[in-house]
From TrEMBL:
Protein name per Swiss-Prot or TrEMBL: HTH araC/xylS-type domain-containing protein
Originating species: Paenibacillus rhizosphaerae
Signal peptide range: none
Entry keyword set: Activator, DNA-binding, Transcription, Transcription regulation
Pfam families per UniProt: AraC_binding (PF02311), HTH_18 (PF12833)
Length: 269
């Protein structure tokens, strides 16, 4: 069995039961292979390795490798681009060890959270995908460097507030359009991950949830004051689909858009 999550900067693959691949290399990606149960028979540059649970191996781009697993064995393979593993806003990351002992229960828990988020979130929205990928990359750095990930670069409090205020002003003016974490983070002069943390600290929710709240509040006004259909309102407010609109609206108000419109109509009588 194989499960996978493919993002622009990150790939995660979960293999179980018998599996074997042929020798190959990834020219532009690091690869982290972590056995979760059973023994992973790994070949790295013609060297044979038997990796027990938790005994991970970190490969540099272009390292030639292959592996085989039998019945009852599970392996997580993570591939990531160098510029994402080593962010541009920090130059103090040490080179990850070629062989590293990982906490199997922690890796399993992180993987389950990633897959749960993929199932629960609307991945058609670029803002959602970027937020999830940024969290996944941060989780991976924590797994590799075990809590020694450098803190966000210090920024004067007034300057940080000013930049975040500009971001909020921009979001309020453009919340019906497609927004991206990358562009908002650049406006805040922070990395994607540190921006998400700063934004949540300021508003109480991450950027995507904040945008959803703005869209739903505007939808409530339009449902009360206009005769536009739910589909038209959904499209005009930037929702990726009417189903996404229904889910977000029901979660925030406890009723469907039609139910809300009827209830507000009765109040006006």
């Amino acid at each position: 069995m194989r499960m996978q999550i493919v993002m622009p900067q990150l790939e995660v693959h979960r293999f179980s039961s018998p599996f074997e691949n042929t020798p190959h290399a990834h020219d532009d990606q690091f690869q982290i292979t972590i056995p979760l149960q059973g023994t992973c028979h790994f070949t790295h540059e013609h060297k044979q390795l038997a990796l027990p649970p938790g005994e991970g191996i970190v490969l540099q781009p272009s390292d030639r490798h292959s592996f085989y697993i039998g019945d009852g064995t599970g392996v997580v393979v993570i591939r990531i681009r160098p510029e994402s593993l080593y962010p541009g806003d920090s130059s103090v990351y040490s080179e990850p060890r070629h062989r590293k002992q990982f906490d199997v229960s922690r890796v399993s828990r992180v993987f389950r959270q990633w897959t749960a988020d993929m199932m629960a979130l609307d991945m058609a929205d670029p803002l959602v995908e970027e937020e999830l990928e940024a969290r996944m990359i941060c989780d991976l750095r924590e797994l590799i460097w075990e809590g020694t990930v450098p803190a966000s670069p210090k920024m004067a409090h007034a300057a940080a507030d000013r930049h975040l205020a500009q971001v909020l002003e921009y979001v309020h003016a453009h919340f019906t359009e497609q927004l991206s974490v990358s562009s908002l983070a650049a406006m805040a002069m922070q990395s994607r991950y540190h921006f998400i943390r700063s934004f949540k600290s300021l508003t109480g929710v991450p950027p995507y949830q904040y945008v959803l709240q703005l869209r739903v509040r505007e939808a409530m006004e339009q449902l009360k004051k206009s005769a536009d259909t739910v589909t038209v309102i959904s499209f005009n407010l930037g929702f990726s689909s009417t189903s996404q609109f229904f889910r977000a609206f029901a979660k925030m108000t406890g009723m469907t858009p039609e139910q809300y419109r009827k209830s507000e109509g009765r109040r006006l009588i």
